[in-house]
Amino acid sequence: MASDFSLDFEKPLIELEKRIIELRNFAGERQFDVCEELKALEARAERLRDEIFKSLSPSQRYQLARHPGRPFTLDYISLIFTDFVELHGDRMFRDDPSVVGGIAFLDGIAVTVIGTQKGRDTKENIKRNFGMPYPEGYRKALRLMKQAEKFNRPIITLIDTPAAYPGSGAEERGQAEAIATNLCEMAKLRVPVVAAVTGEGGSGGALALGVANKVLMLENAIYSVCPPQSCAAIIWRDGSRWQEAAEVLKLTSSDLLRLGIIDEVVPESGGAAHRDREGTARNLKQALVRALSELSQLSPDELVKQRQEKFRNIGRFVAASESKRADDKPDQLEIAPSSNIENE
Amino acid sequence: MLNNLFRTRRRYATLKPRDSEAQKAIPGGLWTKCEECGQIIYNKELKKNLMVCVRCGYHFKVSARERVAQLIDDGTFEELTDQTVFCNVLEFPGYDERIDRARKETGLDSAVLSGTGLLDGHKVVIVCMDFGFIGATMGSMEGERITLAIEKALEDRLPLIIVSTSGGARMHEGMLSLMQMAKTSAALSRFHDAGLLYISVLTSPTYGGVSASFGWLGDIIIAEPKASIGFAGRRTIEQTGERLPEGFQTAEFMLEHGLIDLIVERKALKQTLSKLLDLHNIDRKNPVSVIGLSEADGDSSLETGDAAEGGSADGQ
């Protein structure tokens, strides 16, 4: 178990697992044969695990996505990549530790990997600014992306941030400009870009690393236009209705896959990433390698075109048929124009 | 029963909040009170003064239609038509009603009004956002309209002017709203690569997803005086425990920090845009004198680019 922190809904499982360990230790000491009992308990634990993690509500997933025991970007980097060399700074103002980036091998291929980084404890969280980048963080990311483009390296971004930092320093140095520039520049990178939302995909702060050819999302990650608490406060003037907001915002991986916002859901091992980091990292690695090998078939021009079209067609609703509801959403694809960028 | 005896009576009357931002901006009555200095201004005078307070120079919000009228030569505006429709994809409760209300209040079908027209004779694609329409938040329809306008300008190789105002993302559309940032920015990357001119005009208030996408992607970024502009809203920042100084996130603050190119009074906006178009060698179709110039008594902070002189060549 990665940390002592646990969420209410996972407590019964944690209790049961504790009991299994106790029983095993006890039996070991006293040399009892508890095989049968253990097997039964383990089967029960498995059932309970499925029960809990297979039917999570959006608000529970929101909690899981922010679970402090969840692997963070540097954990994934060490579990998935080899020979990682971290590169620092935006060459203009400072090095923002809430964004990490560098070069590494993924399955033998040199790639640039960039991600937002949260802290494990208070001290590290202060250093990492709770994973909320300043403009210089986004500018560092863009610098590394341009560098990757120069050397024809694919780019992988790992996204886990509550938001772009809201603060006076960030405003003074142009948070809006930094994000806008990343969106615009990422759209035309001539190398493959794969993004993975691993924990919290917090609004513009997440999207600033998310304009990719392929967007993956871990099963229990969330990707949202705003925190459900803010949504509830804005729409209903009642922040306590956040669970309801989490429901209607459609921020889970399965909802976003259905809406065409993301391309693939990566399963989490052991029910949730914090319960099996290695297994989850393995799944993510497989998905990343697969995505890169698919994209390696495309020429630089095709990569740009594919990325542009992908985002061009999101939220494009035209009067093809009369009724416009979620279920006849294919309309948005139906009208997808060919490569051209002209309108009629 | 007895409880009632001791129940405290409410000693105050409940006042209904003012109907909508739209009505605040375009008052229905005869007079309007300046939000800044309290001056009572005769509405016709306010309108003639381009919705700027005659006493303190406070810039009122301007509806999209009115903005077009202020910037585009009379009778030359042609609204872009498209097949875009509204869709409550998330089936967000109350959203359909909210849209209906906004449509009734503004007479627009989205927060974005886009079209082509002549700006002092220069043919441009112009996009204006209307704060009265759900705070000009970014929905799919808004993002699509802006993207189509960018694509129109790209196709016809016209300069693009976007006059922004926005409260940011539209919660009711969840991630679809967020993705409009990527969509519009990607379209602008194509536009910029084609070597075309995009002037972004930021008006009060412009925040969030609009600032952090097309708002800040202009070749030239202009703001109106004292406009509130930024990424995170003041309240969000203050929730982190930070105390913010007066004048934080104003146009002047942004200029001081090197984040925008210039601040232009509304009165001088059209002539400034016209001059910038001239400086980019954008031809004029048929020179028309700048409206408002006749009234302006040379008091604007900018030199008045002589409208008739600059580039009177008949464009083709």
The CATH superfamily of the largest domain in chain B is known as 2-enoyl-CoA Hydratase, Chain A, domain 1
> Number of helical runs of chain A?
15
- Number of spatially distinct domains of chain B: 2
Q: Using the coordinates shown, work out and report the CATH topology of the largest domain in chain A.
A: 2-enoyl-CoA Hydratase, Chain A, domain 1
CATH topology of the largest domain in chain B: 2-enoyl-CoA Hydratase, Chain A, domain 1
Q: What distance lies between the first and last C-alpha atoms of chain B, to the nearest angstrom?
A: 85 Å
Terminal CA distance of chain A reads: 57 Å
Q: Name the helix and strand elements of chain B from N-terminus to C-terminus, one letter apiece.
A: HHEEHHEHEEHEHEHEHHEH
CATH architecture of the largest domain in chain A: Alpha-Beta Complex
Radius of gyration of chain A: 22 Å
Shape of chain B: globular
Uncertain spans of chain B, ≥5 residues at pLDDT below 50? 292-316
CATH architecture of the largest domain in chain B: Alpha-Beta Complex
CATH class of the largest domain in chain A: Alpha Beta
Pairing-aware structural class of the strands and helices of chain A?
alpha/beta
Q: What is the number of strand segments of chain B?
A: 9
Structure description:
The complex is a heterodimer of chains A (344) and B (316). Chain A is α/β, with parallel strands linked by helices and 344 residues long. Chain A has 2 domains: 8-55; 63-311, Alpha-Beta Complex (2-enoyl-CoA Hydratase, Chain A, domain 1), CATH 3.90.226.10. Helices cover 46% and strands 14% of the residues of chain A. In chain A, strands 1, 2, 3, 4, 5, 6, 7 and 8 form an 8-stranded mixed β-sheet that branches. Chain A is globular and about 65 Å long. The N and C termini of chain A lie far apart (57 Å). Chain B is α/β, with parallel strands linked by helices. Chain B has 2 domains: 16-60, no CATH class; 62-316, 2-enoyl-CoA Hydratase, Chain A, domain 1. In chain B, the strands form 2 sheets. In chain B, strands 3-4-5-6-7-8-9 form a 7-stranded mixed β-sheet, sandwiched between helices. Chain B has a two-stranded antiparallel ribbon with strand order 1-2. In chain B, α6 (140-156) runs parallel beside α7. Chain B is globular. Mean pLDDT of chain B is 87; it is low at 292-316.
